[in-house]
Amino acid sequence: MPMLNEKQKLTQIINLGLEVAQVKDIDVLLEKLLTEARQFVNADAGSIYTKEGNELKFSYTQNETLRKKLLEGKKLIYSTFSIPINEKSIAGYAALTGKTLNIKDVYNPPAGVPYSFDRQYDEISNYRTRSMLTFPLKTNRGDVIGVLQLINALDRDRNIIPFAEEDEPFIMHFANNAAIAVERAMMTRAIILRMIRMAELRDPKETGAHVNRVAAYSVEIYETWALQRGIPEKEINRNKDILRMAAMLHDVGKVAISDVILKKPAKLDINEIEIMKQHTYLGARLFSNPYSDFDEAASLVALNHHEKWDGRGYPGHIDIMTGKPLPGFESGKRDAAGKKEEDIPLFGRIVAIADVYDALSSRRVYKESWDEPRVLETLKEDSGKHFDPDLVNAFFASLDTIRSIAARYPD
Question: Looking at 184, 219, 248, which one is the last position of a domain?
Answer without folding.
Answer: 184
